[in-house]
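Lay summary. Proteins are chains of building blocks that fold into shapes, and those shapes determine what they do. In this project we predict the shape from the chain. Here is one chain we studied, written as its sequence of building blocks.
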Amino acid sequence: MLIDVFGAAAEAKLLNKDAVEIWNGPEAEGDFREAVFAATMAGLKNHEIREKLSTALERAVSLIEKPHVWRAVQAVADLLPSRGSVAGRKIYHAASRALGSALLD
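And here is the predicted shape, written in a compact code that computers can read:
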């Protein structure tokens, strides 16, 4: 779930908005559907899904505030084309370079 909510947390930081507002808005609709689907398939009940999503969003917002994490988010964002896709290994390498020694902490 953390992956599903991370985009909303990053967008909230970038736009200086509340992450809950972004998560509940149309921008995150696809991520929300994916998170709920995965949680449902894992056997979670509706109230458990709400709790887990809320916790995941809080954690994502906390992580986004760490400078090394934000640098990694920006490095990955710089790779994203306006159309098409980018190889996962390129994303991995960009994020790893941006995180640097923070990975060892």
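What the prediction tells us: The radius of gyration is 15 Å.
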